[in-house]
Amino acid sequence: MATITTPGYAHIQRQHGRCSTTAGRRGASNSVRFSARAVSSVPHAAAASSAPAFLPVPFVPGADAPSPSGKSAIGVPKAPRKGEEGKRLNFFQRAAAMALDAFEEGFVANVLERPHGLPSTADPAVQIAGNFAPVGETPPARALPVSGRIPPFINGVYARNGANPHFDPVAGHHLFDGDGMVHAVRIRNGAAESYACRFTETARLRQERAMGRPMFPKAIGELHGHSGIARLALFYARAACGLLDPSHGTGVANAGLVYFNGRLLAMSEDDLPYQVRVTADDDLETVGRYDFDGQLGCAMIAHPKLDPATGELHALSYDVIKKPYLKYFYFAPDGTKSADVEIPLDQPTMIHDFAITENYVVVPDHQVVFKLQEMLRGGSPVVLDKEKTSRFGVLPKHAADASEMVWVDVPDCFCFHLWNAWEEADTDEVVVIGSCMTPADSIFNESDDRLESVLTEIRLNTRTGESTRCAILPPSSQVNLEVGMVNRNLLGRKTRYAYLAVAEPWPKVSGFAKVDLATGELTKFEYGEGRFGGEPCFVPMDAAAATPRGEDDGYILSFVHDERAGTSELLVVNAADMRLEATVQLPSRVPYGFHGTFITGDELTTQA
């Protein structure tokens, strides 16, 4: 592991006019491919049984835990028990189930899917290869070995979410399609007391476990082209026959985590959040789908923003079928929900993230949109609309309606994630820090263009409607920077530093970087050859301080996997000098995942 510092450049860019300016109005393939040795890490049982080859098998919980021989088994399957489903069905339902299963195998799989190759963005052999492959659940493992010294002030649980398909895919599969699994490490008094990982027990997962197979469509991997239409028809037909119940949500809760009002919430933007509780014995249990005591009746995106000064939780919800396509709302610290603000959009748009400032929410309206009619033409419903002009909307946090929103155009800008934003009153500007990704739809659609994710400063002048956009790093130091955060005590206020994953070779993460947003100075912490990780989680020295002693006064937590040794670790790195403080050896493999958070010891004692 090594720390590398690169001199800054952002101030030079601004002086020499390397920023793009927009007079706004108000109003060789490097697509997602893994190594050539990638094979499905989800074994099929079909070859050893009389079941059709397309039928999935569930993973044995704990299959990745070491066996008595010391070797670990990955994704060991077991066949579903015959007749388990039929015991619960009446005669009509059994007949309907047989007919629909025959249609799925005979027409959807054999005619629409198998004769056609899958793009890399929907190929399970690519998307869940290597350490992207799923693992079984692990109950709490105690007294984890530690090398170095864990700072004693770190007291709580580091929790990280990720996609972990419980069943072998039957058709296309995208990394984002997997069932949610939370990995958690309990740290106290300088010791790593335990590690556990559990599926988030969504309504979808519970039903599929009972059926012994996947029954809900994969939102990205399966729902494209004519086969996607057929799988949607299958889904609705099975629901109409009572073979499954989508009324309690269809989401996977695999992306974001936030601790709010005594609850750890696991989220994906296709459903309500799910509450997950850290138990007294450091295990994880799913409390259930959480609607904020009946106040929330729509999906919520996976990146709500917790204001460190007010304690309010700000959120968006988008709909891909009916208007309003976008809504904004917030929750008071006691969980009371505001009225919805309906934001008019011409078409449903992919809005994975947004930002807050002290007084505003900043909403991206970019060029990646949903066009369901594209499925009729054989394509993906997630498309890049090149005729659309990207823009950002600035809305007061407590606005009564969308008439208070000011839109500023920022052409050809797509930020999958935004790291922070703040107001600069002397210039009437809102400054947004995000990673601008090109090609904008390359995460969802196969592309021959090299993917780039450029850390960018975007300035929105809400008085003139003009925008400027500057790359923060110089071209000589450009690296793909994705998933990360700023000091959460300063979210929505001006920050100097951001801690972001170095997403190279894409989509793996070879280290993380501390970026000085004012100068462009880059300090990298590299995991080492054959070692990869994920999002760096910043734990401030004083979790409750509104104005910390130093913005970088804290530590970075990150899971890392050694692909040659097959082992996984939790690293503790000093956020100020970027030096390794401690390494925690984990008892089983931790797949590459998405987003995490740190729950303090005090918060653990006040869980609902």
How does this model look, in words?
- It is a single chain.
- This protein is mostly beta strands and 608 residues long.
- The protein has 2 domains: 90-119 and 203-250, no CATH class; 120-202 and 251-606, 6 Propeller (Neuraminidase), CATH 2.120.10.
- Helices cover 10% and strands 32% of the residues.
- The chain contains 6 helices and 35 strands.
- Strands 4, 30, 31, 32, 33 and 34 form a 6-stranded antiparallel β-sheet that branches. It has a 5-stranded antiparallel β-sheet with strand order 1-29-28-27-26, with no helix packed on it.
- The longest helix has 23 residues, at 91-113.
- The chain is globular, with a radius of gyration of 24 Å.
- Mean pLDDT is 83; it is low at 7-18 and 24-86.
N-to-C span:
40 Å
Q: What is the radius of gyration computed over CA atoms, rounded to a whole number of angstroms?
A: 24 Å
| β-strand amount | 25-35%
Mean pLDDT: 83
The number of domains is 2
Q: Give the number of helices.
A: 6
Keywords: Chloroplast, Dioxygenase, Iron, Metal-binding, Oxidoreductase, Plastid, Transit peptide
Protein name: 9-cis-epoxycarotenoid dioxygenase
InterPro entries: Carotenoid_Oase
GO molecular function, one term: carotenoid dioxygenase activity
Task: Quickly list its features.
single chain; 608 residues; mainly beta; Neuraminidase; 2 domains; 6-stranded antiparallel sheet; 5-stranded antiparallel sheet; 6 helices; 32% strand
Brief write-up:
With 608 residues, the chain is mainly beta.
List the helices and strands and how they pair.
Elements: E1 2-6, H1 10-15, E2 20-22, H2 91-113, H3 124-127, E3 138-142, E4 146-148, E5 156-163, E6 180-188, E7 191-199, H4 203-211, H5 225-240, E8 256-260, E9 263-267, E10 274-278, E11 284-289, E12 305-306, E13 313-318, E14 326-331, E15 341-343, E16 355-356, E17 360-365, E18 368-370, E19 382-384, E20 391-396, E21 406-409, E22 415-424, E23 429-438, E24 452-461, E25 467-471, E26 481-485, E27 497-502, E28 511-516, E29 522-526, E30 531-533, E31 537-540, E32 554-562, E33 567-574, E34 580-585, E35 596-600, H6 601-605
Antiparallel strand pairs: 1-29, 2-25, 3-7, 4-34, 5-6, 5-35, 6-7, 8-9, 9-10, 10-11, 12-13, 13-14, 14-15, 16-17, 17-20, 18-19, 20-21, 22-23, 23-24, 24-25, 26-27, 27-28, 28-29, 30-32, 31-32, 32-33, 33-34
GO cellular component, one term: chloroplast stroma
Cofactor: Fe(2+)
Keywords: Chloroplast, Dioxygenase, Iron, Metal-binding, Oxidoreductase, Plastid, Transit peptide
